[in-house]
């Protein structure tokens, strides 16, 4: 039974029949796929295709229903302005979601940072660069706090950020004294904080510096995620943390870096927020938390980690903007806008589950 | 009873990995009880043992995933202390875990270079940290071709779209791609069908042909007896004995590793 004779070595007796087998099986079988399976494979290979198609369809449908009022350069650029904040916060959220986490505190971090920037510059009269840097540092500190709790204490990100959401929001109310800093005061003392709100008129479209800032941020984060080792490691950590660790990746460092980066991006979002609304209110950006998750999910990222793209999040945010604007211009009640966005989320997650089941 | 090691030739060759008296305790459980281990250059050494015999602990100690409480490991004659898998990798010991440790959503090329990506030369790489994707893809393609694994469609397809045997191939390719001297394979055929197992066994023989020593942990006796040069039998946390497949039957080996027979009875 032990196969030690020379000529037989290399194959067990029960395997000798294998030489007569057709060898094609060891290779990729080109089996006939139904159109549905082909679609599933296409979407699996191109995860950003779904939101892109939905966005194009959305624009087409609303253009047909509403007409020029919707597809005018002015309205389309307005949508772009409206989604700027959600998209920036969505970029931060995407980083967290890629590591199989979720950050419920992003909105609170953004508002806290805007209040710090405004209060230091306007109320306390500190130099604007100092106030701005303090805002960024606050964002980094909030992210580091979340990251420490997730990485060191190994708490679930959902619970950590649920807690810090309340903590950061309370700090924000306490520090601001629940007072809004008026837009004209900001403009007088610290116009730099409103700089991203500077309008740019372009062929009938009205954009702001904030829009370009958002696109630049998307480009930078896209580069980091797709063209650097850190980016690949972020995907690997979210995909399979054990595999990443065994491959020699310092998963705790990567995770911590992601939370800090998300905090800083939220602080940049605070800057864009001041530019957008002019004033600095502790009550602003209340919906940014869930809106950012909505943009990420509709953009095709998987809440199980390791799958998703930054371009998807940009498109996801645009889909939300387009459907809100389209429905509003169609004269549909606001409550149905929320209904539509909610339905989009369910459809997006269902689609993600289906795509993930792709057969090899 | 001293462990009688049968060296592959006349005992002149120095072991590549030599471990003496490894001890690892987990509370009151002793996973390694003064275990010895020898691996010679260019050989395939199979490690067999019943469940709970301490095979995994032994392998984890050699691959840096576990730090033994006592004992010493020599690599190429020099004492080494592996604090993490990275230390072992740096020394040239690569491990293919049973779970394969691949990121399913990343591409084949990304997985091959995971944790040791190549950056572009010059400013692009140093300042902008840009990855040299072209070179990595080319090297990945070359590596897979060398190992006869070029049945994949594209080097950029995600690993999750590959079959079990192909994934095993990718994991082996990763372990041999970076100038390693020892590859440890943990149950490489356990999850595979007959045909895929055959390909993996051929892959292991190919790895040996390239001068890399292989440690093969397996429960599959026919596979062990087919490709191993020597068989390390582990029992109750230590090396019971080392046998040569030509001088021992499978039932002898099973009797030894389950304690049905003591090594001294084997003297023939």
Automatic annotation (TrEMBL), chain A:
It comes from the Bacteria. The chain crosses the membrane at residues 48-66, 78-98, 105-124, 130-151, 158-175, 207-225, 254-274, 294-322. It is found in: Cell membrane. GO terms for cellular component: plasma membrane. Keywords: Cell membrane, Membrane, Transmembrane, Transmembrane helix. Its main location: membrane. It is a multi-pass membrane protein. GO terms for molecular function: transmembrane transporter activity. This is ABC transporter permease.
UniProtKB/TrEMBL annotation, chain B:
CDD domains: ABC_Carb_Monos_I. Keywords: ATP-binding, Nucleotide-binding. Residues 17-261 form the ABC transporter domain. It comes from the Bacteria. GO terms for molecular function: ATP binding; ATP hydrolysis activity. Transmembrane segments: none annotated. The keyword ATP-binding applies. PANTHER family: CARBOHYDRATE TRANSPORT ATP-BINDING PROTEIN MG119-RELATED (PTHR43790), SUGAR ABC TRANSPORTER ATP-BINDING PROTEIN (PTHR43790:SF8). This is Sugar ABC transporter ATP-binding protein. It comes from Xanthobacter autotrophicus.
């Amino acid at each position: 039974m032990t196969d030690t004779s020379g000529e037989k070595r290399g194959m067990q007796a029960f395997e000798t029949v294998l030489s007569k087998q057709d060898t094609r099986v060891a290779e990729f079988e080109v089996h006939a796929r139904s159109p549905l399976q082909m679609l599933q494979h296409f979407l699996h290979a191109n995860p950003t295709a779904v939101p892109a198609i939905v966005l194009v369809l959305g624009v087409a449908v609303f253009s047909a229903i509403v007409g020029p009022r919707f597809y005018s350069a002015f309205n389309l650029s307005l949508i772009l302005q409206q989604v700027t904040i959600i998209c920036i916060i969505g970029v931060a959220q995407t980083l967290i979601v890629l590591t199989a986490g979720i950050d419920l505190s992003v909105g609170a971090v953004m508002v806290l940072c805007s209040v710090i920037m405004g209060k230091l510059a306007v109320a306390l009269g500190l130099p604007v660069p100092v106030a701005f840097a303090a805002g960024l540092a606050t964002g980094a500190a909030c992210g580091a706090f979340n990251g420490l709790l997730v990485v060191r204490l190994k708490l679930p990100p959902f619970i950590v950020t649920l807690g810090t959401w309340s903590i950061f929001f309370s700090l924000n109310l306490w520090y601001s004294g629940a007072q809004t800093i008026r837009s004209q005061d900001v403009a007088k003392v610290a116009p730099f904080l409103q700089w991203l709100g500077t309008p740019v008129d372009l062929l009938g479209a009205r954009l702001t510096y904030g829009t370009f800032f958002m696109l630049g941020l998307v480009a930078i984060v896209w580069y980091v995620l797709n063209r650097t080792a850190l980016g690949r490691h972020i995907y690997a950590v979210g995909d399979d943390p054990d595999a990443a660790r065994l491959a020699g990746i310092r998963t705790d460092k990567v995770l911590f870096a992601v939370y800090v980066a998300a905090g800083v991006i939220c602080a940049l979002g605070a800057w864009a927020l001041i530019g957008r609304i002019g004033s600095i209110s502790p009550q602003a950006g209340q919906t940014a938390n869930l809106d950012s998750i909505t943009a990420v999910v509709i953009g095709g990222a998987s809440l199980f980690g390791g799958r998703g793209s930054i371009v998807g999040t940009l498109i996801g945010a645009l889909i939300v903007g387009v459907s809100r604007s389209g429905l509003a211009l169609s004269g549909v009640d606001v409550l149905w806008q929320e209904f539509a966005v909610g339905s989009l989320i369910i459809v997006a997650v269902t689609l993600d589950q289906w795509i993930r089941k792709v057969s090899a | 009873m001293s462990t009688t090691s049968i060296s592959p030739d006349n005992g002149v060759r120095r072991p590549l990995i030599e471990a003496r008296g490894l001890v690892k305790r987990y509370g009151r459980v002793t996973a390694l009880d003064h275990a010895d281990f020898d691996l010679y250059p260019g050989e395939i050494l199979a490690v067999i043992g019943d469940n709970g015999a301490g095979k995994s602990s032994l392998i984890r100690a050699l691959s840096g995933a576990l730090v033994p409480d006592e004992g010493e490991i020599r690599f190429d004659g020099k004492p080494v202390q592996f604090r993490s898998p990275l230390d072992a990798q740096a020394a040239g010991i690569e491990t293919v875990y049973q779970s394969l440790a691949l990121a399913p959503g990343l591409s084949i090329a990304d997985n091959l270079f995971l944790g040791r990506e190549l950056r572009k030369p010059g400013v692009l790489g140093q300042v902008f940290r840009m990855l040299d994707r072209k070179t990595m893809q080319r090297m990945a393609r070359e590596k897979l071709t060398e190992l006869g694994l070029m049945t994949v469609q594209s080097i950029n397809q995600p690993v999750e779209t590959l079959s079990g045997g192909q994934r095993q191939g990718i994991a082996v390719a990763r372990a041999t791609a970076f100038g390693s001297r020892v590859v440890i394979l943990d149950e490489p055929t356990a999850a595979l069908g007959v045909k895929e197992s055959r390909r993996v066994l051929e892959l292991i023989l190919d790895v040996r042909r390239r001068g890399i020593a292989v440690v093969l942990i397996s429960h599959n006796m026919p596979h062990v007896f087919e490709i191993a040069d020597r068989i390390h039998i582990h029992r109750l946390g230590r090396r019971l004995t080392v046998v040569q497949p030509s001088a021992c039957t499978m039932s002898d080996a099973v009797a030894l590793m389950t304690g049905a027979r003591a090594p001294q009875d084997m003297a023939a």
